[in-house]
TrEMBL record:
Name of the featured protein: Ankyrin repeat protein
Biased composition (Low complexity): 133-144
Pfam families: Ank_2 (PF12796)
Record SMART domains: ANK (SM00248)
Length: 222
């Protein structure tokens, strides 16, 4: 097992190579190992959507969930699914407000790259970050609730206390979508699991409406 590369074993999909866990248990120090660029098994697990591996690394091998790479980024910066983001934030307690070397938190970086809008929207809520005016319009609190999270590219909303202001889509406004996002933003259960599920449904609808662009693959080990 000494010749096995744990990073390559973790990069296997849909599940990590079965030789990885025995390797880590025989050499626990490998669980916290980083390559020359600071890439860790946490980063690999987050990027490849290996939720159970994330749990094992943190809970069994006691790897620091806030371990950063050479760019000052935790594994949260490479999360590509809401499931991974939720595990890191709600279970493993990653710090959502860690800033990389460009002084940017994960929510803002993922949003700017426009690859995973649902992940960005989820992180915006948990980081307590207001939606930027350049990517999601001007968003204000509704009934004292926290600002709604950012929507996908090409979609903007405006939710204000003024009765004449309504959510607004950048392209071909959908009255039903406007009504749903305004209603959801004003509800008391906006930050509950049920509210977050409805938010993800809205985001998915918006993404399907505006289409998806080709994306550059994040740094991974082939």
């Amino acid at each position: 097992m000494a010749s096995l590369n744990p990073f390559l074993l973790a990069a296997v999909v849909p599940d990590p190579d079965p030789r990885l866990l025995p390797l880590l248990r025989s050499q626990p120090a490998l669980a916290s190992a980083q390559d020359a660029h600071g890439y860790s098994l946490l980063h690999a697990a987050a990027s490849y959507n290996h939720v159970n591996l994330l749990r094992l690394l943190v809970n069994e091998f006691h790897v620091d969930v806030n371990l950063t790479d050479e760019d000052g980024e935790t594994c949260l910066f490479v999360a590509e699914s809401v499931e991974v983001a939720r595990c890191l934030v709600e279970e493993l307690r990653v710090d959502v407000n860690v800033k990389n070397d460009e002084d940017t938190i994960a929510a803002d970086k993922i949003e700017s790259e426009q690859d995973f809008p649902e992940v960005a929207a989820y992180l915006k809520v948990h980081a307590g970050v207001s939606t930027s005016s350049t990517s999601a319009g001007n968003v204000s609190s509704v009934n004292g609730a926290q600002d709604p999270p950012a929507l996908p590219p090409n979609v903007t909303i405006n939710v204000n206390s003024s009765t004449e202001d309504t959510p607004e889509l950048a392209q071909e406004p959908d009255p039903e979508f406007r009504r749903r996002i305004e209603e959801l933003a004003g509800r008391e259960n906006f930050h509950t699991d049920e509210g977050q599920r409805e938010l993800r449904d809205l985001i998915t609808d918006a993404v399907r409406g505006v289409g998806n662009e080709e994306r550059d693959v994040r740094r991974r080990l082939g």
